[in-house]
Amino acid sequence: MSTPPSDPDEPPAADEEPVDNTPTVTCDRCDREWELEYELDALYAGNQAFEQFALDHERHTGHFPDGVTPWVVNCQQCPDGERFLDERPARRWAETHGRHTRHDVRIQHADDDSETAINTVVEATGDPESPDQPADGEADE
Ligand SMILES: [Zn+2]
Ligand SMILES: [Zn+2]
């Protein structure tokens, strides 16, 4: 048993500095407004704090706060799915899921109400095991 080195006690979240520009989030459905102090404390900076809040809000309430139009990714072949606040991670999720499962994944964005089907047909990437040799009419069977 070794005694741990002096482990620094976390200072109580006292009012050290008045936070001027704490971003706030509003939700019409909840008729509430939140400051993102907690998310900022949890090391999510700037926009990420907002995203984290939005995702947490959705997780707990089932809807996103104002100003958030999530990218909803749903697998058509299994219950898997995710929601993202950006198109890029949504696409990455869809592509990754498709790569591993060969499932068809659909991306929806509430903003334009359009659906994008990610067709996850795995493309042949120069696979030497699948040569496109011409049939030379010689069947040796
Ligand atoms: Zn809400
Ligand atoms: Zn799936």
Count of domains: 2
Q: Identify every distinct bound molecule in the structure, by name, code or SMILES.
A: zinc ion
Percentage beta strand: 15-25%
User: How would a crystallographer describe the biggest sheet?
Assistant: 4 strands, antiparallel
Contiguous runs where pLDDT drops below 50 for at least 5 residues: 120-131
The radius of gyration is 24 Å
Helical residue percent band? 25-40%
Number of helices: 3
Overall pLDDT metric: 76
Helix and strand run: EEHHEEHEE
Largest sheet, order of strands side by side?
4-3-5-6
Structural class: alpha+beta
Please report the distance between the alpha carbons of the first and last residues: 73 Å
Approximate shape? globular
Tally the beta strands.
Answer: 6
Give an overview of the whole structure.
The protein is an alpha+beta fold and 141 residues long. The protein has two domains: 21-68, no CATH class; 69-136, no CATH class. It is 26% helix and 19% strand. The chain is built from three helices and six strands, in the order ββααββαββ. The chain has a four-stranded antiparallel sheet with strand order 4-3-5-6, with helices on one face. It has a two-stranded antiparallel sheet with strand order 1-2. The protein is globular. The model is unreliable at 120-131 (pLDDT under 50). It binds zinc ion (2 copies).
